[in-house]
Structure formats: C-alpha cells, structure tokens
Amino acid sequence: MAKNIGYPLDLKMNHYADVSYDEKERLFEEVKADERYHHVLYGCYECGICVASCPSARFYDFNPRVIAQALAREDVDLVYTLMEDSIWDCSQCFSCDRCPRGNSPGQLITIMREVAVRNGLASAKKALEGYGRIIYKIMSTGSQVSPDMLQPNAFPDWGVHVNEIAENLELWRKALPPETLHTTETGWTVSDKTIIELYLIWHMTGVMDLIEGIDEGLFMILVDVMEERLEDAGYDITFD
Amino acid sequence: MIHLPIAKAKDRLFEADPNNAPTEDLRDEIFQLEKEGEWIVQRVPEPYMEVKTKYGRIKKIPVEKTWHHKSCGQCGHIPGYSTSIFWLNRQFGLDYYDPTDQTSCTAWNYYASATSNPEAQAAVALRNFASAYEQGYFPLIHCGTSFGHYKEVRHALVHQPELRRKVRDIMKRLGKPFVIPEEIVHYSEWVLAMRHRIAERQVIDMSHITATVHPACHYHKLIEEDAIYDPEIYGAQRTAIVSATLQALGITVGDYSSWFDCCGFGFRHILVSRDFSRSFAVQRKIEVMKEEVNPDIVVTHDTGCVTTLDQSQFAGKAHGKKVGLPVLSDSQIAALAMGAHPYKVLQLHWHNTDNKPFLEKLGIDHEKRWSEFQAAVEKIKSGEMEYLTWEDADA
Ligand code: SF4
Ligand code: SF4
C-alpha cells in the first residue's frame, strides 16, 4: 500500500518495512532484467546535471540523481520507496539525457513505472486514477486524444474558450478543410480495418493483462468493446 | 611566461565531423539488416532535400509522396496545426496522402502510464509504417513525441533481435510487410527544408516580428543525434529546428535563458496534475520569455508544447503573472506568411491566448477574417454547405 508519507520525502527511513525484502528484491530484479536497463545506467558522478535540467525537480520533492544512485548502489529498500513515492512525478521530458555518465534517469523511471504497473503496485494504481479515459481512448479507438475531450469540467483552468469550443464542436469540426478531421470522438477518421488490426496487436502482445492488473473496471469495458468488434469482423478472440 | 592563443567562445566555430561522431549511424545497421533479409527498408522518395544533423551526418527529407502520420493532440485540440501542414503541401502542388489507416503512436500512453510493453509499441509503429509503404508514400510524422518514440522503437528493433522477431511475427499474422523507413522525419524538418521556397512565396511581411522558440524535448533530446543542427543557427550548439524557419521568413528570433527547459506538459501531468504543467509553463517559460525578450509570438513544433504553453496562460493571468504571448506552430506561421486564412486554415479560434494583437501587427484585419469564417459556419449550420472545403478555405 502506497503511504502518504508527505513532503519532504525522507529517504533515510524505511517507509515500507512491512513489505518483505524478498519482494522488494524481486521487483528490483525485474527492473534490472529489462533489456534497456544496462544501456541507461552506467554509475553516477553525483554531478547533479540531471537535477539542474529536470522540470519535475523544480516543483516536486523529486530527484533524478537519487533515482540513478539508488539503482546504481543497488539499494533495494530505497528503490522500492522511490517506486511507490517518487517515479510518477517525472515529466518524461528526457532533459536528463544530457547526463555526462551516459545515464538516462528518465528511461530508468520508465522501466520502474512499467514494473510498478505490471505488479499492480499501489503507487501505479493511484497515479493512474482518473487516467482511465485516456487509456480507453487509445486502446479502443486508435486515437489517443479526441475533440470531445475538450469539456469545461475537464479543463476548468483553461478558461471560457473551452466552453465555446464545446458548444460549437460539431460545427467547427465541419469547418476544417481536411476531410479526415470531421470527427468528434477521434482525432481523425480511423478505418475499421485499422481498429481491428490494433485490437489484434493488443491481443498478441498481452497488453490487456497490464490493464487488468491496474484497473479491472476499465479492463472489462475494453474487453466488451473489443470482443464485440472483433467478432463482427469474424475473429473468435477472447482476452481472458 | 607562455601565452597560448585562446579563441574566445564566440569566435570558435564548431564543425561537426560525421567521422568523429560518438554514436553509430543507425542507418548503416538498418541497411545491413535488410541485406540479411530481416526487413524491407523504405527509401526516401526522390527528389529529396538534404539537411545536417547534430554530428554532421546528412539526413534526407522527402519533398513529396509523404504519408501524413497525424498527431491526435494536434488534430483533436489544435486542428489548425495539421490543417496548415496540409495547406502548405497543397500550395506547392505536392503529392501527399492523409490516411485513415493510421493510429496514434501510443507513446503518450507509454510515457504517461506505462500501460504498454515494447512489443506492443513497436508493433503499433510498424503497423503504421507498413500502411504507408503499402500506399506507396513515405511517413512524415506530425507529432514530436511520435517522432522521438519511433526513433526509440527503431533503435530498439535494430539492437534487439528478439524484439525484431516478435514484431515480424505480429506483422506476418496481420498480413503486413515488415518495413522500416530509411529516415524518421518530423514535419518541422520538412518545413525547415522547404523554408526558402516558403519565403519565396511569402506575402505577409514579418520582418518587424520577434519570436521566441521552444524546441520540443522529444524532438532534440530523444536520440539527439537525429535532430537538425546548422552552424548558422546558434553556432550549431543547439538544434536549428524552428529557429532557421523563422529566420528565413524574416522574423527575429530572441534568445532566453530557459530555452532548454521543457514546456511542462509532462504527459500524465497535463491531464491529471495540471497544477504542475501550468506553473512550469508560466514561471519557467512564458514569464522568462516575456522578461528577457518580450516577443510578439512563441513558436514551437509539437502538440503538447503548443497546448501547454498556450492554455496555461489563462490561469497565469488570473494570478497576475506576466503572460499574454500567443503560441503557434511553425506550420501555422509558415502558412500565415504565405497568406493562409487565420481562421479557415490556421483555425486560431481553437487557441486560447489572445492572438489578435499579433495579427494586427501583421496588418491582418481579424474582424473581417472572423466574419468570413462565421459566414462559412452559418452555411454549414443551414445545410447550404456540408463541410468547409479547401476551395472555400482559399476563397
Ligand atoms: S525525464 Fe523525468 S527525471 Fe529526467 S529530466 Fe525529465 S522530468 Fe526529470
Ligand atoms: S547527471 Fe548523471 S552522473 Fe550526474 S548526478 Fe545525474 S545521473 Fe549522476
């Protein structure tokens, strides 16, 4: 269970003493087993260049140097704490790729996030709360962002022009010269054949297992949509 | 005492030498794998334009026969961005293809939520590439994140035989060719390579305009050696993208101290932790630009950057921050320079920060232009017109 240990993040304490060392080590081994891992971590000079470049370090109690060092030192407890309490603050901008040691803290974080998701860690579930509609969009429609997402209740801080767009959405979409852009539920017209191929990719690569581990409700909705459409296209496929 | 002659930094010229590049030229590996029968390499169609990348290597940019890999964020929320890219192609009479057999790249999902895996990401990329190849057109990637992500995918496929095997198998089961493009090309590279042709057709003078540029992180930080660099622009110490285009149009590009910083988009942050995105965009980008340059316009070349820098200013204004800089893409600026309609083509009504003072400075009667757009919308509303066509957009 991710703990709300608050700020500043006290890394000296072992906040997750109730999680067994073996379990933490298992997760760490999973991180290290990733093909990319040894291409993005070569040790650490402790120079702090990554921190100076990092947007998230400016606004959160977050530090890419600590992440690189914890992994390089193989500090199993700290790596676990970072996976639960830190990695989701990263903006994935890869400014830290200018690391003189050749590290990519951003890529290390990507790997840690993937392990957190695969293992259904509480931090991953919490971080992805409210994110389901985005995952739903890309997985079911082939287009991640759609015009109908522009609703005032979703973007109150973007001001009144969002209301204006929402009110005029259908008309303004028709007032776009490219024929593929007359859509509201997807960014552009995506052909049926393309969607079916996308569903087959999700099926062949086991991505749906990840979704099931994180958000069972979303998984069930997606499975319903996909199985029905695949069946209509003549495929007898289940995601169970 | 010995005095060694030391050139001042400003007098030193950095000359990139491809023979001394610290990284491999991935294209050699790509062609080698083709020789070994691993995949098909789709060549950049001729005639192509040549640009130089970070270590002085030549990158081929197709002029036409381009397959437009659209961006979901551009098409969905700032559609004048992609419309301007198509408009430019049409103005030059170039052969391009706007596919419906295209999906998003899934990189947003990947960077934001990690709910994906390498096989799925590579298969999504290669399915799109196969579609372009089958159509006989070369992929031109509209989104900076798709561009960066596809470069990462290409890198992984070259270096991971097992991943290649899995994805080849998936393509086979989908009945698609296993094909990789010779170059991964971002649309802003096409705009840059076309800049002199665009300038020849310029009808709006922009020589009194000052802009600040925000380069997209996923353009020049991910697989950095593939980004365009030019000794004429920042002494080839930073990517020339966007800046070279604007200068060709006569615009003054102002420099500012947080140029390298990201925009604050953050992938998951822009959707579920927007307080961070807003604060970063306003405090580290817009306010710095305003204080150090006070430009007429901010120009960038990626979906999330336009969105974050533009939309975040509304809340910044409420907090009394130094905001109020309109944000446009390079494709929109290029189209505007060539006389595109600010609402029918650039679709500026989808943008947030007030851009009317900028249009006024260019001598564009925005009220008249808006009423022309509104008249077209009324025709659609009444059923007199089904859609706004390309012909209507230029009427
Ligand atoms: S990728 Fe993450 S850790 Fe690296 S600079 Fe960006 S926000 Fe910081
Ligand atoms: S930039 Fe690299 S070497 Fe320097 S502190 Fe960060 S990870 Fe360590």
Task: Please explain how this structure is put together.
- The complex is a heterodimer of chains A (240) and B (395).
- Chain A has 240 residues and is mostly helical.
- Chain A has a domain at 21-127: Orthogonal Bundle (Fumarate Reductase Iron-sulfur Protein, Chain B, domain 2).
- Chain A is 52% helix and 0% strand.
- The longest helix of chain A has 17 residues, at 216-232.
- The radius of gyration of chain A is 21 Å and the shape is globular.
- Chain B has two domains: 15-187, Up-down Bundle (Glutathione S-transferase Yfyf (Class Pi), Chain A, domain 2); 202-370, Rossmann fold (3-Layer(aba) Sandwich).
- Chain B is built from 19 helices and eleven strands.
- In chain B, helix 5 (118-135) crosses helix 6 (144-159) and helix 5 (118-135) crosses helix 7.
- Classes of the chains: A mainly alpha (240), B alpha/beta (395).
- One iron/sulfur cluster binds at residues 53-56, 64, 90-96, 105-106, 109 of chain A.
Features of the shown structure:
heterodimer; A: 240 residues; mainly alpha; Fumarate Reductase Iron-sulfur Protein, Chain B, domain 2; globular; disordered N terminus; B: alpha/beta; Glutathione S-transferase Yfyf (Class Pi), Chain A, domain 2; Rossmann fold; four-stranded parallel beta sheet; three-stranded parallel beta sheet; binds iron/sulfur cluster
- The level 1 CATH classification of the domain at 21-127 in chain A is Mainly Alpha
The helix content of chain A is 40-55%
Strand order of the largest sheet of chain B: 9-8-10-11
Q: Greatest chain-chain interface? A: A-B, 78 and 89 residues
**What is the terminal-to-terminal distance of chain B?**
75 Å
CATH class of the largest domain in chain B: Mainly Alpha
- How large is the count of helical segments of chain B? 19
- From the spread of the alpha carbons, the general shape of chain A counts as globular
Supply the number of structural domains of chain B.
2
Task: Describe the global form of chain B.
Answer: globular
Return the string of H and E elements of chain A. Answer: HHHHHHHHHHHH
Q: What radius of gyration of chain A results from the CA coordinates? A: 21 Å
Structural category of chain A is mainly alpha
Tally of alpha and pi helices of chain A:
12
* Low-confidence regions of chain A: 1-5
CATH architecture of the largest domain in chain B: Up-down Bundle
